[in-house]
Amino acid sequence: NAGVTQTPKFRILKIGQSMTLQCTQDMNHNYMYWYRQDPGMGLKLIYYSVGAGITDKGEVPNGYNVSRSTTEDFPLRLELAAPSQTSVYFCASGYNYEQYFGPGTRLTVT
Amino acid sequence: GDSVTQMEGPVTLSEEAFLTINCTYTATGYPSLFWYVQYPGEGLQLLLKATKADDKGSNKGFEATYRKETTSFHLEKGSVQVSDSAVYFCALTRTSYDKVIFGPGTSLSVIP
Predict the structure, then answer these.
(1) Using an 8 Å Cβ cutoff, are A92 and A101 in contact?
(2) Could you tell me how far CA A73 lies from the centroid of its own chain?
(3) CA angle at residue A97 from A50 to B87, to 5 degrees?
(4) What is the pLDDT of residues A33-81, one digit of tens each?
(5) A97 to B44: CB separation less than 8 angstroms, yes or no
(6) Closest CA to B102 of B93, B94, A14
(7) Backbone dihedral region for residue B82 (phi beyond 0: left; psi -120 to 50: alpha; all else: beta)
(8) Nearest alpha carbon to residue A32 among A91, A87, A77
(9) Are A104 and B43 inside 8 Å of each other by CB?
(10) B70: distance to nearest CA of chain A, Å?
(11) I need a surface site. Which of A43, A50, A55, B31 has the fewest CB within 10 A?
(12) H or E stretch including A4?
């Protein structure tokens, strides 16, 4: 099992550009999550999904969109990137109390 | 709403020292409690968990006991190693599939 994979690992965006962060899990988990982690801070939940076709907002959804067309994939879309979106983004899947995290995507918006 | 509070870091210890990282929570009912660890440049991974009061979670020499009366879940290790240097997150969830609420994290550095 690869677990949770994320691409890309690093990305630099210019202000106003858009991009999609990819997340895939091969554990057949229904629950998936997107978090952002700012330097020296904890995790903030952006969006989550309880299964294919179902998504909901977390604490900090503004500026982001998600979709969940399959159990495996949960991409995060950034529209009109802003410097405030500079962060490390983690995708996770969940099962039986535990969350399984991907390695993260480090995004810089300049 | 539910929340998790951790002791502020960074914490710096010498190798073989005793480690305690305090964690307290606010939640109604009986949440499940967790410690996650994040090594440099990596995602979080589950270190240990406890799903009911008085349970003790343990893994890799780390332990934490679910104390309902003090709403605490302090992380301890008797003898830390340089390889334990990481950020440690206390967390809770209400059900097996609910959102997880994370504390702010405590950075630990262990020096030889």
Answers:
(1) yes
(2) 11
(3) 110
(4) 999 998 777 889 999 999 999 999 998 999 999 999 999 999 999 999 9
(5) no
(6) B93
(7) alpha
(8) A91
(9) yes
(10) 22
(11) A50
(12) strand A4-7
